[in-house]
Amino acid sequence: MVKCEECGKTLGFLEGYQHPTMGKKYYLCSPCFDGVSESIALWEEFVRANSFELKPLKNNIKLDWKKILPNIRNIGKTLEADLIEKEINVKR
């Protein structure tokens, strides 16, 4: 005998559904399974609507690198300038 993970109802031998996200060890009764599957469907729609872009990924990466590389090249210069400013402020 297994208990429903959501409501605690005792399930018979052939009753219950496997939990869609938690796996084979967890079972749900029919009403709880319907609620869980609806919430999973809503979550999937939310993720699809907010995360998928139709633009190719390679172009986005190239644009990001074009913005990032000048900053990386100038790290040494900016660190030296910061150290010099700190030394000047300490001496004052």
How would you sum up this structure, described in words?
This protein is α+β, with helices and mostly antiparallel strands and 92 residues long. The protein has 2 domains: 50 residues, no CATH class; 35 residues, no CATH class. It is built from 3 helices and 4 strands. The chain has a two-stranded antiparallel sheet. Strands 3-4 form a two-stranded antiparallel sheet. A hairpin with a 3-residue loop joins β3 and β4. The radius of gyration is 28 Å and the shape is elongated. The N and C termini lie far apart (79 Å).
The neighbouring-strand order within the major sheet is: 1-2
SSE-based structural type: alpha+beta
- Count of alpha/pi helices: 3
Low-confidence stretches: none
How much helicity do the residues have? 55-70%
Oligomer: single chain
Number of strands: 4
How many independent structural domains? 2
Distance between the termini: 79 Å
Largest sheet: 2 strands, antiparallel
User: What's the Cα radius of gyration?
Assistant: 28 Å
Beta-strand portion reads: 5-15%
Bulk shape: elongated
Order of helices and strands: EEEEHHH
Q: Mean pLDDT across all residues, rounded?
A: 74
Which features characterize this protein?
two-stranded antiparallel ribbon, 3 helices, alpha+beta, 4 strands, 92 residues, elongated, 2 domains
Helices, strands, pairings?
Blueprint: E1 2-3, E2 10-11, E3 17-19, E4 23-28, H1 30-51, H2 57-73, H3 75-91
Antiparallel strand pairs: 1-2, 3-4
Q: Can you give me a brief rundown of this structure?
A:
The protein is α+β, with helices and mostly antiparallel strands and 92 residues long. The chain contains three helices and four strands.
